[in-house]
Amino acid sequence: MTDTLEDIWERLKTQRDEIHVQMHLARAELRDEIEALEPAWKKARQSFEEVREETEETAREMRDASRIVAEELSSAYHRIRNRLEEDS
């Protein structure tokens, strides 16, 4: 299973939205059950947002660090190539 967190979250959102659309047809006990889930939904949504923000920040930091390493390697290879050309 290669679902991303975003995919899983979107499926949950779709399920929730569909239930809310059909809720007016539900019996009172089902309406109470879905309403009882709202605090958990809100808490999960907040956690998801925090994870997504942290993940985006971490990914940005990793891209920046990778770029620095790549630039340093490129510079080192360039110096070596220049020295090889000088020696020939």
Describe, in plain words, how this protein is organized in 3D.
- By secondary structure, the protein is an all-alpha fold.
- It has one domain.
- Helices cover 89% and strands 0% of the residues.
- The longest helix has 60 residues, at 28-87.
- The radius of gyration is 26 Å and the shape is rod-shaped.
- The mean pLDDT is 88.
Structure characteristics:
single chain, 88 residues, mainly alpha, 2 helices, 89% helix, 0% strand
List unreliable stretches of 5+ residues.
none
Structural class: mainly alpha
Task: Tell me the overall shape.
Answer: rod-shaped
Mean pLDDT: 88
Radius of gyration: 26 Å
Main sheet: strands, sense, barrel:
none
Amino-to-carboxy terminus distance:
55 Å
Topology summary:
Elements: H1 5-22, H2 28-87
Short characterization:
The chain has one domain. The chain contains two helices and no strands.
